[in-house]
Amino acid sequence: MAINFKPDELEKLLAHGARDYPSECCGVLLGRADGESKEVAEAVPLRNLRHDPTRAQELLPVDDPSRESEKNRFLIDPEDQLQVEKDSRARGLEVLGYYHSHPDHPARPSNYDREHAWPWYSYVIMSVERGEAKEVTSWVLSKDRLRFEQEDLKAL
Amino acid sequence: MAVKVVIPTPLRQFAGKKDSVEIDASTVGEALAGLTSQFGDLRKHLFNEEGKLRSFVNVYVNDEDIRFLQKDQTPVHESDVISIVPSIAGGSLICCICS
Ligand SMILES: [Zn+2]
């Protein structure tokens, strides 16, 4: 499995991570899937709804709101998600996956990431250390939900 | 009475590659039970070990979230469309290396 980005789109994604530091950023990856590989035509930044704890808590409650915030959690607004999905279909693109940042944490999925994932989608994670995007990785959930498998990520 | 359940792209591999399935049901709960008995591999991606819908899995009848209707008791009628939409969520706490 592999995911390939247009170089500008990968730059855009990394810039988003740096810009939103020390909060987590999130967005959607649009493009085309062809068997084992995905071609990202566009990375679309979206709002992290954890900045609005009241509304986020209604939609997908976290266990411990005193520890879990926009600094270590993200949630995409379902209205943004449905809109972007609709627009992308109209342009002949499909949703290939999603991205988010880990401020001052490694670009490795957490258990929470795994519990909120489906197979097939690519989950791209970037580490942002002291405001600078460092590493970017991509992951696909196994069919038994037990682990994430890393896939190749390239800018082509 | 048959309702249409739209299968999202990531789950089609577990539903015979279909993009939608017609199920005989009178409630949303019956429709999802029917769907997952026909396609057993779908179950773990929709329901948790206790058999409850996973917290990030949202179900809509036409364009209404069933949480604001009658949840799995929400009645469905011929020609209704059920959609399954994941909440997209995650975060670094607690990452596997730091924990
Ligand atoms: Zn994460």
Describe, in plain words, how this protein is organized in 3D.
The complex is a heterodimer of chains A (156) and B (99). Chain A has 156 residues and is of the alpha/beta class. Chain A has helices at residues 7-20, 53-59, 78-90, 111-115; strands spanning 2-5, 26-34, 37-46, 74-75, 94-103, 122-129, 132-141, 148-155. Chain A starts with a strand and ends with a strand. Chain B has one domain (2-86): Beta-grasp domain (Ubiquitin-like (UB roll)). Chain B contains 2 helices and 6 strands, in the order E-E-H-H-E-E-E-E. In chain B, a hairpin with a 2-residue loop joins strand 3 (57-61) and strand 4 (64-65). The chains are: A alpha/beta (156), B alpha+beta (99). The structure holds zinc ion. Zinc ion sits between chains A (100, 102, 109-110, 113, 125) and B (90-92).
Main features:
heterodimer, A: 156 residues, alpha/beta, Cytidine Deaminase, domain 2, 7-stranded mixed beta barrel, B: 99 residues, alpha+beta, Ubiquitin-like (UB roll), 15% helix, binds zinc ion
List the helices and strands and how they pair.
The complex is a heterodimer of chains A (156) and B (99).
Chain A: E1 2-5, H1 7-20, E2 26-34, E3 37-46, H2 53-59, E4 74-75, H3 78-90, E5 94-103, H4 111-115, E6 122-129, E7 132-141, E8 148-155
Parallel strand pairs in A: 1-3, 1-8, 5-6
Antiparallel strand pairs in A: 2-3, 2-5, 6-7, 7-8
Chain B: E1 2-6, E2 20-24, H1 28-38, H2 43-46, E3 57-61, E4 64-65, E5 81-86, E6 89-90
Zinc ion sits between chains A (100, 102, 109-110, 113, 125) and B (90-92).
Biggest sheet strand order of chain B reads 2-1-5-3-4
Rg of chain B (C-alpha, Å): 15 Å
**Stretches with pLDDT under 50, minimum 5 residues of chain A:** none
The figure for the number of domains of chain A is 1
Largest sheet of chain B: 5 strands, mixed
Radius of gyration of chain A: 15 Å
